[in-house]
Amino acid sequence: MQVDGFEFFGHIINNEEVPSLDGDTMPDIDPYTREQWATIACGGKADADLAVAAAREAFDHGPWPRMGFEKRQQLMHRLADLMEEHADELAMADTLDMGKPITQSHHDVTRSVLNIRFFADHARMSTGEALPMDSGHHAYTVYEPAGVVAAISPWNFPLMLGTWKVAPALAWGNTVVWKPAEDTPTSATIMGRLAVEAGFPPGVLNIVHGYGPDSAGAALTQNPDVDRITFTGESSTGKIITGVAAHNLTPVSLELGGKGANIVFDDADLDNAVHWAIEAIFRNAGQVCLAGSRLYVQRGIYEEFMRRYKIAAEALVMGDPKDPATQFSSALASQEHFAKVSSYLGTEALGGGRILTGGLGEGWSVKPTIVTDAPGDARVVKEEIFGPVTVATVFDTEDEAIAMANDTRYGLNAMVFTENLSRAHRVSGQLKAGTVWTNCFFIRDLRAPFGGVGDSGLGREGGNFSREFMTEPKAVVMQIDRG
Ligand code: NAD
Predict the structure, then answer these.
(1) pTM for the complete prediction?
(2) Ligand 1 binding residues, C-beta < 6 A
(3) Which CATH architecture fits 2-256+456-475?
(4) What are the helix and strand counts (H, E) for the chain?
């Protein structure tokens, strides 16, 4: 269907793809061409409330929470199969929406499919606890679905972070209203269409598009019929959502911003460390919460490391995100985001630091940028830029590196590069972060806790951690022995 001459993507409510109740739409801009490529239904409070009502009805009276783990697992695998069949369409949707290189969008689709399969299987394989009591009683736990889950996701991994929330919610028998980011809505609608095709009952997976404040996003967080809010996005938004959710005592799970420290000791395998230091900040043009945006390199290897790092950054193939040869996109996600990232290249934000390589690119792009000599209190060091800008700092001792790494209000992740096993354990143990990678980056086990400390989040998701959030654990206590 075409609206205003462009392909139309609607909300998915009760298994129907629908426009907004008031007919409102928003243009979807391809940041590489800087032109509209699709028209999106723009929802407001009425649309969000309608989606929640559909999810509520499906949870209270529909088959989904009652059909059991095995049937849900089968339907989720059917959805995953269809997503694999439509991988090209899904990947291109994210690339057109936010300028992500197509090879990386394909990687995201693969990971999204894995999210769905993993959580479907994980829920089916989960066991409760049996707690024999000395008193002649016996207690056991049951993990019951929480109800209606509102999932609010950001634009940097549109499908992958959406499925990271939607999949555990569904697997545990909840019904869902998913609001994707306004800049990257289309892969969600495509997935919603596929869920209908897979045979999901009406009202189980609802998708509502729109903005956050005073719009569909805020309405979801205010609705008393929502039982859980799982949010990924900016720390400031997470704080607003927590305040709103408190009125209904709705539990929230928050995955927020980061300013990851990447510590390279002078005994590190240099090729490996340079490879991951490049990935850590230039993958997805640094629009990654986990980005290793603060690089700390020990003095003994600083010069050689920086020489290789600069060469590797300059060698990244920059270009059209639709071209499979492109490693680094010639477009940040939106004009607004381009303005934000470029503001960090100005004198005030650099605070005396200098740009070793990089700077502004064509259109809405910033080249792979390395900053050196910035003082620890410069904005470019302190604030989340969420773009392809890394700040390199030299250090002498282990204690100094740990102190600098921990000097942040964020605490999502950190990386340590060393061939010394004792040091790897010692330093990992002292870093204030939800995840520490040693001699690698971005490697995930979906059973592991994922989340951050400080301004990087609240709670953990993944494996049993998602189960704790997406269910109401119940204790049943039985008298066994009356003797
Ligand atoms: P954002 O907070 O602006 O928006 C995220 C989502 O929240 C969008 O869907 C938006 O419409 C919605 N929203 C905005 N205001 C809202 C409100 N008042 N009520 C309800 N919903 C609202 O974030 P963004 O710019 O889309 O994403 C970038 C941020 O996300 C960065 O800070 C990044 O670090 C963070 N992030 C964190 C993780 C993680 O796992 N910790 C992963 C990816 C991104």
Answers:
(1) 0.97
(2) 152-156, 161, 179, 181-182, 211-213, 217-218, 221, 232-234, 237, 240-241, 255-258, 289, 384, 386, 412, 452, 457
(3) 3-Layer(aba) Sandwich (3.40)
(4) 16, 24
